[in-house]
Design a protein that fits this description.
543 residues; alpha/beta; FAD/NAD(P)-binding domain; 8-stranded mixed β-sheet; 15 helices; 17% strand
């Protein structure tokens, strides 16, 4: 059932977003012979790496694993320079892939999708677009609508009173000016100390005259241990990447650069556990969370790791009063996204850097001259909001999506996202989410999870075309069972014990529901294979 055979249809599929997910989805659907159009808000490919150009922006998954694993030719034509790639290098890589596969000819840039409405009579999606500059838009008609909008792409600027009165410049780390920002000689206020704050603050402090950091919640941060890659490391990776990717798909996090300890903490001698904590800490990266099989399930075990992490963090700051304020005590280690840093904690020993406890002295408003925290006004020339994103659902619900019988996805998800496998939602035929809520997504190496989803969707659409089927959508029963399962698995972990963006807790009024699937990439992949092998059990296939 190709585009030319359906009256009124413009494309077989419209993909929303041209980051890693949208690019690979376009490539795969071309391979099926389908007509495809990608709609992208930015004026280039890249997704989150197009928008997040803040100083210090860097991936927290190692470069040799944070790359596509579907093409030997592509991976052998690219050489990574650092253990953890910076944003400019990742964006160059994405453009290299887009040019290599000639993807840009099927991407409409500087255009957003305003709404997507399912027409039951024609079994087509009516997808309404708008040019970013306001110069117009069009309505596209497609059989499939695929949301490749990313989990961390809807930047969140807090609704502070008085922001419009501020006389200086303000920026959000998730929508940074492409030309960059020079803070030389300026007084800068930074609100937020999650990953983007942790990465940007040392760079901003190296330029600015004065930096005032407003911290509401202290976070666990580990030394990244970033360094230049050795040529022999890159060569060795090229020889095994495709096989390594198959291995990664069987692991919990889609990462193979370190081994997860399968032993319980109680099965390890205290001295061995302590040594493993030390070794993994000095490895840098997420290896620290692989210390024992129950570190994310048993609070007493996690406490040992958290105490170790706090002692290591404290030792990095000379001013002990400031050090204490930088230590997290209100959540277990790992239940919020770990921050990987370069000289972040040490920055607070600099005379021109001040830490403000925004939990004790909340930021109440922005004034013409600066930031009001508690009863004190801090005068600044520029404000940086490192306040994160409306994660996992924000970009999806940024499109007004309407399914069968006029049901709006925003209404259906009002109490929290409801999906089957994170891939689709009942009542919305032929609508797919790549790494949507209810899948491992942000708890994994995103590239691995993206490829896992795109490959599954591609095989699914090939099955529909082969049998001349018009539609596929989850059943309500399968969706209810999967949502319950995700909640059950989450309840066996420590994740719900933190007010994290995994829970939607950073967005006022957003339902606090644990959104990703914490069962692991490997286990989840077995479920995907089981569903497809049973001719898409849990989905209704429509003739």
């Amino acid at each position: 059932m190709m585009a030319s055979s359906v009256k009124g249809q413009d494309f077989d599929a419209v993909i929303v977003g041209a980051g890693f997910a949208g690019m690979y989805m376009l490539h795969k659907l071309r391979g099926l012979g389908l007509s495809v159009r990608v709609i992208e808000t930015g004026d280039g490919v890249g997704g989150t790496w197009y928008w997040n150009r803040y100083p210090g922006a860097r991936c927290d998954v190692e470069s040799l694993e944070y790359q596509y694993g579907f093409s030997d030719e592509i991976q052998k034509g690219w050489n990574w320079s650092e253990r953890y790639s910076a944003q400019p290098e990742i964006l160059r890589y994405q453009n290299y892939v887009a040019d290599k596969l000639d993807l840009k000819r099927d991407i409409t840039f500087s255009t957003r999708v305003a709404s997507a409405n399912y027409d039951e009579a024609s079994a087509l999606w009516d997808i309404n677009t708008q040019k970013v500059d306001g110069s117009g838009g069009e309505t596209l008609h497609a059989r499939f609508c695929i949301m490749a909008t990313g989990c961390l792409s809807a930047a969140r600027v807090p609704n502070f009173e008085g922001l419009e009165d501020f006389k200086g410049d303000w920026y959000h780390t998730g929508n940074w000016p492409h030309e960059g920002v020079d803070f030389t000689g300026k007084r800068v206020g930074v609100i937020g100390t999650g990953s983007s704050g942790v990465q940007s603050i040392p760079i901003i402090a190296s330029q600015a005259k004065q930096v005032t950091v407003f911290q509401r919640t202290a976070n666990f941060t580990l030394p990244a241990g970033n360094r230049k890659l050795k040529p022999e490391e890159v060569t060795a990776s090229k020889a095994t990447l495709l096989d390594d990717r198959k291995h990664a798909l069987t692991t919990a996090g889609g990462i193979i650069c370190f081994e997860y300890n399968e032993a319980l903490a109680s099965e390890m001698a205290p001295a061995d556990l302590q040594k493993d904590l030390e070794d993994r800490w000095h490895m840098g990266g997420f290896a620290f969370l692989g210390t024992s099989a129950d570190i994310m399930a048993d609070k007493s075990v996690n406490d040992v790791a958290a105490n170790f992490a706090r002692s290591e963090m404290k030792a990095r700051v000379k001013n002990k009063d400031v050090a204490e304020q930088l230590l997290p005590y209100d959540h277990p280690v790992g239940v919020k996204r770990l921050c990987l840093d370069t000289e972040y904690l040490e920055t607070f020993d600099k005379d021109h850097v001040e830490l403000v406890n925004a939990r004790e002295h909340p930021v109440t408003r922005i004034s013409a001259k600066g930031i009001v925290s508690g009863d004190k006004e801090y005068e600044v020339d520029a404000i940086v909001f490192a306040t994160g994103f409306d994660a996992m659902t924000g970009a999806i619900l940024g499109v007004d999506i309407t399914g069968r019988r006029g049901e709006r996805l925003a209404d259906k998800w009002a109490a929290g996202p409801r999906t089957y496998l994170g891939l689709g939602s009942a009542g919305f035929p032929n609508l797919f989410f790549i790494t949507g809520p209810g899948s491992p997504s942000v708890l994994s190496n995103m590239i691995v999870s993206i490829e896992q989803h795109v490959d599954w969707i591609t095989e699914c659409l090939a099955r529909l075309n082969k049998s001349n089927l018009r539609s596929i959508e989850p059943t309500r029963d399968a969706e209810d069972e999967w949502v319950a399962h995700v909640n059950e698995v989450a309840a066996t972990t420590l994740y719900p014990q933190a007010n994290s963006w995994y829970m939607g807790a950073n967005i006022p009024g957003k339902p606090q529901v644990f959104m990703p699937y914490p069962g692991g990439v490997g286990v989840y992949g077995e479920k995907l294979a089981e569903v497809a092998g049973a001719d898409y059990a849990g989905f209704a296939l429509g003739a």
